[in-house]
Amino acid sequence: MNMAGQMPRSERIALNQVRIRDDFWSYYIELVKDVVVPYQWEALNDRVEGAEPSGAVRNFQIAAGLEQGEFYGLVFQDSDLAKWLEAAAYLLEADANPELAAIADGLIDTIAMAQREDGYLNTYFILKEPDKRWTNLTECHELYCAGHLIEAGVAYYQATGKRKLLDVVAKFADYIDSVFGTEPGKLAGYDGHQEIELALVKLYEATGQERYLRLGRYFLDQRGQQPFFFEEELKRRGGKTHWAGSGEHVDLAYHQAHQPVREQETAIGHAVRLLYMLTGMADVAALTGDDTLLAACRKLWDNIVGKQMYITGGVGSMPQGEAFSFDYDLPNDTVYAETCASIGLIFFAQRMLRITPESRYADVMERALYNTVVGGMARDGKHFFYVNPLEVDPKACGGANHKVDHVKPVRQEWFGCACCPPNIARLLASLGEYIYTVQEDTVYAHLYIGGEAELQVASGKVKLTQTTDYPWDGTVCFEVEPEAEGRFTLALRLPDWCPEANLKVNGEVVALEGGLFQDGYIRLQRQWCAGDVVELNLAMPVTRMYSHPLVRANAGKVALQRGPLVYCLEQADNGANLHELVLPREAELHAEREGGLLGSLVTVQAEAIRLSGPDWDGGLYSSSAHLLEQAATVKFIPYYAWANRGEGEMTVWVRERY
């Protein structure tokens, strides 16, 4: 910890310092730029036929006096537009786009016109309940929407240097600062959906105004203190609630408001809320030197990753409340695993990496990114998953079986609650921020994504050119070009899925032993010269994966993983009734590149057994098995690629025979 009370922490790497040129990711980056962001702009303007209306743009136009009408949508509708604008800002930071900039500037003009004189800015309360500001923080997302708008304002300023939106959100934050606090006359509250905390940190870093950091810390410190604010607030409203009409109690754990944040040890409640809160906690801990806050982050990280995370990086297993349930409760068919929750997990992992570069954080970041997050969007960029199941039978989705009514067998065009599509857009548009971090004289490579990066280390500037066919192949090459010869460390992550690796520097083998390893990274410290080449070869076998014995849903089952990718069986390749398939433990697993399938990918094939009952005559139950064993060649595809070939069954976990 330095003299200012801060912890050592990597600075943000600007997106114009990183150019992604990667066979896998460039497709998605271009998709976000050319399809996703334009499509979402149309959806936010209610111009996509067949998709649920948004009303988000029109709400601001009405609030600005440019249109006539009433507020449309959910109470947090503003946040969809803010996330879209943040994604647009990241694209503009990476590459000039005059057309997109003109659209964004016009939107910002409208937002500025909608802002009230005192700084307040929320279209729901401006248009629908102007006398109810700050009366239902439990449910109505006022500070959540403010947080997303602040993030957009900071991102747009960083991208373009234009201050208009930054000034708008700073004025809003100043107003919020005048409302909230423990001083006499202020409201000693906090929002039901965390987000403002991490946003205020970004605003502090963009402006240097410490009051924003203090306010972010206040919201964290106040949460869970007694008397419980949400219960007191409900009493002041006479028991009236936004969603249910009336109620006597607030589910404090759902909002992570049941205990002070430093005392919470188990992930509980709404998953996105918790992960946004933890992201803010990590940021505030780093900037204030608060060891107790960081210790709470680590404790909850261990619980999430060690006991409540799906193999795909999905979190939040319970549809009731989009929430964590209890340790090892990871059902595959009734799962929730909201896309936004995995994005929140990536945010949290990145913040922990910036404080303490340990590979365990990057391993989870990679797992969530390559499986749940990229799987949350179709390859056309126009269809999305809100929920990410690990087992699907279309017959069980919808209809009378409300237990899985939230699960969709195909991606949807849009949602009434459309938080996930713009969240995917802003994450993928900012992907360059997640590949590297720099701490003093060490460059950490967390993700293996091809492209160039211009980075600043203690000894000067250095350009890294990364070349790889990851995630299909484990060979990663780095060409190092320091501005002047200098000594620094290049730290390469050794992924948790990799059983063996070898390394060469300028063609010479480097023994991977002794002090070369630290916290899961291979650390190459040397005097670097222009043209130095590092080649890392990561063994990428197909691996059988098993669950902890307490995960009841996966008892007797196996999943396949190759590199960072989890695999699944899909009806399109293997026919219906996937539950009949059994994978013998001795079956050989063959990885094969299929260039014409879903944009080129590696599939895994194996000889399995199908247990079927074509001659079953025992009624619903029988004392005799009457099962026919048939040989079956099965094909597994990467989980992220499922549901791109029409509706059908899917499963990640398969029965195994010893």
UniProtKB/TrEMBL annotation:
Domain Non-reducing end beta-L-arabinofuranosidase-like GH127 middle: from-to ranges: 442-540
Pfam families: Beta-AFase-like_GH127_cat, Glyco_hydro127C, Glyco_hydro127M
Source taxon at top rank: Bacteria
MF terms (GO), sorted A to Z: hydrolase activity
Limits of the Non-reducing end beta-L-arabinofuranosidase-like GH127 catalytic domain: 17-433
Entry keywords, A to Z: Hydrolase
InterPro entries named in the record: 6-hairpin_glycosidase_sf, Beta-AFase-like, Beta-AFase-like_GH127_C, Beta-AFase-like_GH127_cat, Beta-AFase-like_GH127_middle
GO terms classed as biological process: carbohydrate metabolic process
Residues covered by the Non-reducing end beta-L-arabinofuranosidase-like GH127 C-terminal domain: 542-655
Name of this chain's protein: Glycoside hydrolase family 127 protein
UniProt organism field: Paenibacillus mellifer
